[in-house]
Structure formats: C-alpha cells, structure tokens
C-alpha cells in the first residue's frame, strides 16, 4: 500500500510539477478521480491552510470529506503495545485506526512533534501508528518531522516564479517566541535537493537540522553572507535538533526585512508572526510569495491525493 508520508513518496517530481501546473490552469482536470471515495482528516493540532486546502483539493477530485479535530474532540490515544491503560489514554491505536478506516477510503493526519523526546518524535509514533494499523492510505498533513504537502507547494511556487534555470534558494532561520518543530525546514531542505537550485541554509549555531534532511550540507552561520545573490529567501523558525526542542536564540537581528531581502522573492509557509519573524516591509513590499505558496497548497494536496488514489487502485 502506498502512503504519502514524506517527500520521498513523490515518485517523479518533474511529472508532479507538470501536472500541478496543469491543475493550476484547469482545477477540475481530475474531477472524477475520487468519485465515490471518502477522505477523513484528523487534526491533532491547529490549522488554517492545510485544513481548507486539503478539503478543497478533495472536493475538486470529487471526494467526500470528513474532518475531526481529534486533539480536542477525540479520545486520548495509546500507541504503545502492552500498556496497562489505567492512566490518561482511553483508546488504543489498534482499535482507533481501523475504526476510522471503516468509514473512509483515505486518512489524513496532522500530528506535530512534542519536542520533548527526539527519538519518539523522529519515530513518527502517531503517523506511523495510523500507517501500521489503519489498512488504508495515509496522507501526512504535517507530522513530527515532515510537512511534504508544504514542501511540494513550495517546489511548485519556485517553479512558477523562478527567473533563471538554477536559482539560489536560501533557507533562513528567524526568531520566534515559542519552540517550533523542524518539520517544515526538514521537508523544504529535502525538497530543494530534488530541484535544480543552489540551496544555502543559514541559522545561528546550534540550529543544525538533522543530516538526513540537509544531505550533509554545511550551514552558513553568517546570514548576510548567505543572502548574497539570493533569488528566493525562505524564512522559518525552528527549535534546536541537537539540544532537542530548545530555543537557543531570540536575536531580533535574524528577522527578515525588505533591506535584507533586496531583489530576492520572499517565501514563508505561514502562519507568520509579523515584525518578529518577518518585518512588515518585507511582507508588504511586493516581493512576497506567501499567498501564492498558500494557493499552491491546494495543488499539492490534489497531487498527493490523486497519487494515493491511482497508486492504490
Ligand atoms: N503552512 C501550514 O501548514 O499552515 P497551517 O498550519 O495553517 O495548516
């Protein structure tokens, strides 16, 4: 059975990007592909873009959609086998996942990292629990370590707006008051290695991402140097991977501004904290692609769902 858990599940990126461009021009191109199928979206964490764009994508494919805020409305799930469930968890994944699968043909899961236990987060307990026990295709709508729907939308955006064959793309860390997971930068870094771009990653020391996502690319700790000649600047906060979940810096000098951006085009997955992560003048200055990225989330969800339907039929 095929699932869509990471960017590695994108079989032929060039074909997917080509189909994405066609869907942008003709949104109902695959209108009948999902007819008669039901998609169940389970949210263990908040969302705006993922929730609405995935529902819209499913509707464009002719699917029925059910959505549940599982984190606030569902039973607290147990994932470990053999547990004596006399504490906080009320239902085991061994029952919950196959029960959901009786009502749906595909399941979407959003479950963020807890940022307390790196080994547990990077084992993807929740997502893999559904993969293991649901028995139907699973769509990752941002898990502990990966956000492939966002990364695919980002690739579509770079393809849409690049002005040269091999643009320079800079992934720049920015400050944030809360500890955020590494899922978005992990998947973005991985995706950029599959595109004809020159990737530079810049962040303060201590924010190195896991090498399996960066491909061993050494970071540039000097943001100003990293930004020289950039065509696209992807701004994102993340917490430390080595000192897992820690906030090591809140240095406002790392915030993205219009001056730092120069002629480069600005990217951010959203939501973004204005004047903390990105300054107003960068978001409003005419070089921002953040709304186009959000628009491309519908395309990336259509592509992933179409792939799951076709490859599992
Ligand atoms: N970028 C993104 O995934 O947005 P949401 O968290 O609002 O879904």
UniProtKB/TrEMBL annotation:
It holds the Pfam family OTCace_N. GO terms for molecular function: amino acid binding; ornithine carbamoyltransferase activity. Residues 2-159 form the Aspartate/ornithine carbamoyltransferase carbamoyl-P binding domain. Keywords: Amino-acid biosynthesis, Arginine biosynthesis, Transferase. It catalyses: N(2)-succinyl-L-ornithine + carbamoyl phosphate = N(2)-succinyl-L-citrulline + phosphate + H(+). Pathway: Amino-acid biosynthesis; L-arginine biosynthesis. Catalyzes the transfer of the carbamoyl group from carbamoyl phosphate to the delta-amino group of N(2)-succinyl-L-ornithine to produce N(2)-succinyl-L-citrulline. Is essential for arginine biosynthesis. Homotrimer. This is N-succinylornithine carbamoyltransferase. It comes from Robiginitalea biformata (strain ATCC BAA-864 / DSM 15991 / KCTC 12146 / HTCC2501). The lineage of its organism: Bacteria, Pseudomonadati, Bacteroidota, Flavobacteriia, Flavobacteriales.
């Amino acid at each position: 059975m095929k699932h869509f858990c990471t960017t590695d599940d994108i079989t032929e990126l060039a074909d997917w990007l080509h189909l994405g461009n066609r869907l942008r021009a003709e949104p109902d191109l695959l209108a009948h592909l999902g007819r008669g199928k039901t998609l169940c979206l389970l949210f263990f964490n908040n969302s705006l873009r993922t929730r609405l764009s995935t529902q819209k994508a499913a509707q464009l494919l002719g699917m029925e959609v059910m959505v549940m805020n599982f984190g606030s409305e569902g039973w607290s799930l147990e994932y470990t086998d053999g547990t004596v469930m006399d504490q906080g968890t009320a239902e085991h994944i061994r029952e919950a996942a196959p029960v959901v699968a009786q009502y749906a043909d595909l399941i979407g899961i959003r479950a963020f990292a807890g940022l307390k236990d790196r080994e547990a987060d990077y084992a993807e307990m929740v997502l893999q629990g559904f993969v293991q026990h649901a028995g139907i295709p699973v769509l990752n709508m941002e898990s502990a370590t990966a956000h492939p729907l966002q990364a695919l939308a980002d690739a579509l955006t770079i393809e849409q707006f690049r002005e040269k064959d091999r643009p320079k793309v800079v992934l720049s860390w920015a400050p944030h008051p809360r500890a955020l997971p590494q899922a978005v930068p992990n998947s973005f870094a991985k995706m950029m290695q599959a595109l004809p771009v020159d990737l530079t990653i810049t962040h303060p020391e201590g924010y190195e991402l896991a090498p399996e996502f960066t491909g061993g690319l050494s970071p540039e700790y000097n943001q100003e140097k990293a930004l020289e000649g950039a065509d696209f600047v992807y701004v994102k906060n993340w917490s430390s991977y080595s000192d897992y979940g820690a906030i090591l810096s809140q240095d406002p000098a790392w915030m993205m501004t219009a001056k730092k951006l120069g002629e480069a085009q600005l990217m951010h997955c959203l939501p973004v904290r204005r004047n903390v992560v990105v300054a107003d003048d960068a978001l409003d200055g005419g070089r921002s692609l953040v709304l186009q990225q959000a628009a491309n989330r519908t395309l990336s969800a259509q592509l992933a769902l179409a792939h799951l339907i076709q490859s599992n039929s």
